[in-house]
Design goal:
Six copies of one chain form a homohexamer. By secondary structure, chain A is mainly beta. Chain A has a single domain, classed as Glycosyl hydrolase domain, family 43 (Tachylectin-2, Chain A, 5 Propeller). Helices cover 4% and strands 48% of the residues of chain A. Chain A is built from two helices and 22 strands. Chain A is globular and about 55 Å long. The N and C termini of chain A lie far apart (37 Å). Chains in contact: A-B, A-D, A-F, B-C, B-E, C-D, C-E, D-F, E-F. Chains A and B meet through strand 13 and strand 14 of A and strand 13 and strand 14 of B.
């Protein structure tokens, strides 16, 4: 298993740079798909597994398992994940989208946006990416961008989320909640707000947790998306935040500038123009490298790279 | 302790009728209040205790304890409830409003709308209406109208709530959630929706749980509010619903017609015109009587009466 | 049959004045009604018949026949009108409201707002106010305020209407359309617009035909409603217009000032505050008298009076 | 006269595919045009004639005649169509756009969106594409997407349309209306609705008739547009529907997936990004081929192809 | 000349109390008026003069001079003020409303909301309330609530205003601007904002200067209006602010609670329900008394009283 | 100093044409920039100087000085302009954007959109593009697009501006104001409105002054932007207007068609798609040439050219 990686282009001075062969997953990578984006990956066996948001040609949203040797070339199942009942009586959801995946203790937990009379946070798990179990939704609607921590915090599961409304939510803060058992949730804490327009306009409308945080010397490093409202609708860009290791309710640093903003054609043009939406990372802490997976223009999956130490330093130096 | 009561006026044919001396609590019943409304009462010692929403003259919202011998004449404390920390580290809320009160097992539980970067459901308790303890909020924002069941359901606390947005929410369904410990919540189920306009227009914009349900032969009887959007804003009226005794996720009956709609001047004119908002009942099951407390025009507290058996029958006969 | 009438109060200098015993129909005049308003009357046999909008306590809208000896005291049927199929295969409508009635040639034609996947203009007739027949809707949705002329114009039926949207329409002009057979309609002409705010603000948001026009020396006299948008929603007032006798597409005169605006409590307070909505007149041309029926606050029916010659003169002198 | 045609590309598995030389009409194809799109064609003499929407550089909308030998290369008149009065007194319209053309009996009928104090359905005809006659508008405003059937149904002209509001209408259903004489219209029936978001999101905001239906073994085959509301505004895609031959009020099949969605740069980028808007077809029933003309990005005209039998099969197999 | 005055009612503990004979000017006080409200008064000769907003029955807004011996009973001219050109070429305005009046040096200056392609601040003067001169508008649209200081500040005229938009502005702060000559304005300073909802909800949507400030020991005392957005629209209440004597850009104190909120029927019911809008005061500094004139429900003029020292003390004690 | 220039391409028939090497300033022309657009240039010493809007990667807006030999290749300072206090006590602004520059009498005046609790018009000057002085804001918020005339008109400075609201203003007219001293402003006159949709749709939502006017035989020639609201938001195009030489309050001619509309990829795709926003010209009156600088897609700076005489003729021939 080798981390997907490409060195920084010579002329580039940015702390995060794009893969030159982007997008890595095209909108029609499976026969039924209208678009594939906002997807999550995780090391699995000798390579990688992923959970992909594939909207079909009726623009129904669902999540699909996929596999890759190198994290770049993916084989995505042609059928959506068929969940069995986990800790819930029966499984039903109007739709599923924007998955995240994380390994905790003994299994791979998946969270996503689940349609339950409006969007909320669906929860499921798998041991093998073949059989999947769906559990109770974590929260009441309306919610999006549920992202678990990769280990328990003080003995409890911890999940970030972004309370929303039932449409194209024009507001949005990140909260952190806890659960003793992944079934009942509480101890909700507000941890991150959109910024005042004059301080950092790219994240002034709403923000949402993106990738599963991973532990660094500085604390939990997470990539998140921020949104600005232009006269043509929303524009989504990506920043980074560092949360305290012991008490992740405390955000230690958070980038005032973005790390990536839509500026390539595959990010600027598509089903929804001007969207960069990070959902996962792969990292090699020793090698100091991170690969960031993000949805582009609500149409394709793209990849970016960076050195972890540089990103940490940048986040600290450019904190709000 | 005598249930507040007044017989149905001779000419009245309605299943629920108003107290002729309404409002029972005036907007200036305490020196600092702008308005007193959407308040809850409960039998206590030899009379009644209540938790009252008193907005002050800065129109800051807070909740106050009050006491009454007869359920009609109330002495409301001049200082808001000062919560001590219950199962939470420290107590802080931007505001508190629309309380409900219910006795479960050994104490009086209070739920209300708590400001935590937006409205959500606050939870607290008291043994004596002198010392109060605040616990963890039940849910993430945005939520309103959290109403507990008066006993555990299958060993778990049960609470209805109405997921909302951060403004004058123009939508709203009732959900039911469960908790083993009043701290962590899950098993969220959607139980009641607004109605299609043509079926029952008074409750077509949004609905919210109102009074604490009480057990009858038909199941849990609850009074709730429904809202219609007129060209002058929202109008709030009151209906009733009967939930299954064993599985309150199942709504057995629910009134297509309202039981009360704003038609008295104190309901039609005030800080917010045309509002009837039930928050509590007192009932004498044996005597077949119920007294319903409701906020009127977001300004005062009013009282209505009915025979439980008649209301049950009406709800069944006029169900949606 | 005597025209309902009351002389102008001594102090009153207005060209139209209210009946002192208003409202003439209370909101609970029939057992099931939430409100009775926006209703139409017509001479019938030795007295008067009417078609009344009675919203029931589920706030479902329907129309009911009623009868009166004096035009003031009304007996309204407790059951809504049950239409048989006229020139249409089968009768179905989601709701019916805001009726108008007019006698043409051999029968009483009724028009109203009919729910057909949105509001449009329903058409029906009766010979006796006992048996009613429903015909094809005149127009596609979305439309409201369909008002027929009491005789054919150049051999064709003529109907005013107010194209709308599917909500609380924030715009609205009056059009006039023609039909050879009351089934197929065409020759649509735009005849009246809302006014610029600075010219006549009470009718600057939208206008709608009100009463069935009747012929005078100056042309067709009609009372219509105009709407202004305040920071508390819409306010409805009443004006008059005179349309050319030969070519009613031509509006000859139209009042810049209103004739009636909400200023009595029953017009200012109710289910929708600040509404005056004229739907019918009774007139005695010889006696120079007209009685105007209008809905007040979307809750009750009220009555106003005037001398036709004075109203004509006022309309000409105060025309836009 | 040869049907424009290009075989399906080898790798393509879609039931409808694009012409590789798209767009076939550029935005500046005539000297005065800002954009040319949403246009209609019909077989004429030894080739084809068309009616084109050409917005000029003041972005005034008007319709222009054009001619082609092969249906692909078009000569569009530099002057807009100058209508003479048909069955109407005098011709006036604020603007004209989105034309459709169909031959019925003895002449070519044209329908379009006509400005008459708001958009409604204009109607006109020509025998030779040189002299044009304008008739009465079919309906009251606000309406768009009026599409005639190519023959009378039960002795009457039949027209689909999409009642609208006076702006960027955020709703929209398809109705079917009838006329004995192309002047007076009635018998309006609701035939197609937008879909629930979870069933087929690309057509969940509004839909509108597109091409003139043509008769197949399965019934009338029509291509229509469906719209989804993204956080950047509307996105328009194309589906197909099959209406019952005898009673086209009955929609027999309708595609849950789209047939075409914006995914080429000329569809994704332009005056209005992400628009595919079908307005006409040419078909060779014997050869089983259909050529579909559609506006792209409100800027240019493009062409797509398909086998009729495949489209019918696809529509039946993938029906909602 | 005697200050209008009535002692505080016995039971009343408020710092400001209403005149028991309110409203002092009825909506029909002149023959043409629909409503008279938001008006200003000033000592003049042996009594008082005023400038009154009288909307006529076409709901056109204009300002009228009026006179009173006692400040309570008013004779209002039946014709609006007819301005001659002051420092401006010619006088034209689409409408005039919400006047304020103040004597500075040698004349009475009047400011009001002037229609100049949208609302802005009109300026005029009179020496005798018979002949009036209109000057250049102070500012560009959109602006409302222009209120002059009664003397020059550091040699320059000083005016508060409330930048607005062209509708029912949902935001609004108070600015202070300066002019050497009452013709050219600059040195604009932001001085007061709406409050956060949780701090003082009655003034959380927008605020606007009300009465002309007068000098006290504590500084300039001004009554202003604050607005909250309810689910039925705006509600207007009144507070007080004290500005620094030397540098009125500095707000020293400002009431967190309101001084008056709509709670009498003439304030709660009318053309716009729930409005208290102060526009002027009369004060007797020696006698420590102030009379406050305010518009009620956009329909009538009402009067309230208070002791200046008490109001100062209250403002200081209850400052934000 | 040579005017930047490129001859009209052979096939082009437009009166204004683009530079083939557009954009001339890329979004990342300085290390910190997210985008560089809506910028102004002026002849300076032996070449040109400019003031550039460079949004940084936090999307904070500020203005930067830049220099060029040829007007095409620019060196932009890496630090924003650091203003010293001019006629104002101290300098503070929340943000600065959309600058214009003009030489009057003895110095270069700069106007821009200044954040002062909302956007308004900032004013400053420099003699050398090294030291800059900031003066009092010209107007109250909310305002944008302040453009000075290059000489005094009747002894007074003259500035166009576009009163706005505090968001993505959906309306907007151009006013002209005067000042004796560049500090106090008055004599505000409304000079240009958006057009009715049917007359010139590209400028029907709002308009704003663009480049500094320059004097021609026909009067002051100015390039301005006009905006249309599509279902995907705003689209910005460019027109020209000629103002009377003596009395620039009088607009003599104004183009009904646009001169430039977004049709190149760098205008159609970017941070805000479909924007052409002119902010400056360089002209050689003798040579009859003008170079127009405009922001494209809120991302880059582009350049267009034209012959002044042709533009004048076009504006006269195609006037509204």
């Amino acid at each position: 298993m080798k981390l997907p990686w490409q060195e920084r282009p010579q002329k580039c001075k940015d702390v995060v740079w794009r893969y030159t062969e982007n997008p890595i997953v095209e909108r029609d990578a499976i026969p039924t798909s209208n678009s594939i984006f906002n997807s999550a990956v995780v090391p699995f066996e000798n390579g990688y597994a992923g959970v992909f948001r594939c909207d079909n040609k009726a623009v129904q949203m669902n999540i699909f398992a996929g596999f890759s040797k190198d994290g770049i070339h993916w084989d995505i199942n042609h059928q959506p994940i068929n969940f069995k009942a986990g800790d819930i009586d029966k499984v039903h959801g109007d739709y599923k989208y924007d998955p995240r995946v994380v390994f905790i203790e003994d299994r791979y937990w998946i969270t996503w946006c689940e349609g339950h009379n409006g969007p909320t946070i669906g929860v499921g798990y798998t041991f093998d990416f073949k059989v999947f179990f769906q559990c109770e939704n974590a929260f009441l609607p309306f919610n999006r961008n549920g992202v678990l921590f990769p280990e328990k915090i003080n003995g409890k599961y911890a999940m970030m989320s972004r309370p929303s409304d039932n449409g194209h939510t024009p507001f949005g803060d990140i909260y952190l909640s806890y659960s003793p058992d992944m079934k009942y949730w509480g101890e909700h804490r507000h941890i991150m707000s959109p910024t005042p327009f004059k301080d950092s306009a790219w994240q002034c409308t709403k923000i949402g947790a993106g990738s599963v945080p991973f532990l660094t010397d500085e604390g939990w490093l997470m990539f998140y998306h921020g949104v600005i409202t232009t006269c043509s609708g929303f524009r989504y860009a990506m920043g980074s935040a560092i949360l305290d290791k012991e008490n992740p309710n405390m955000v230690k640093y958070r980038t005032q500038p973005y790390l990536l903003t839509p500026s390539e054609l595959y990010e600027q043009v598509g089903d929804v123009p001007n969207v960069i939406f990070p959902c996962a990372t792969l990292q090699d802490i020793k090698a100091d490298k991170v690969a960031i997976y993000y949805g582009a223009a609500d149409t394709v999956v793209a990849l970016a790279f960076g050195y972890i130490s540089e990103i940490l330093e940048f986040t600290k130096q450019n904190t709000l």
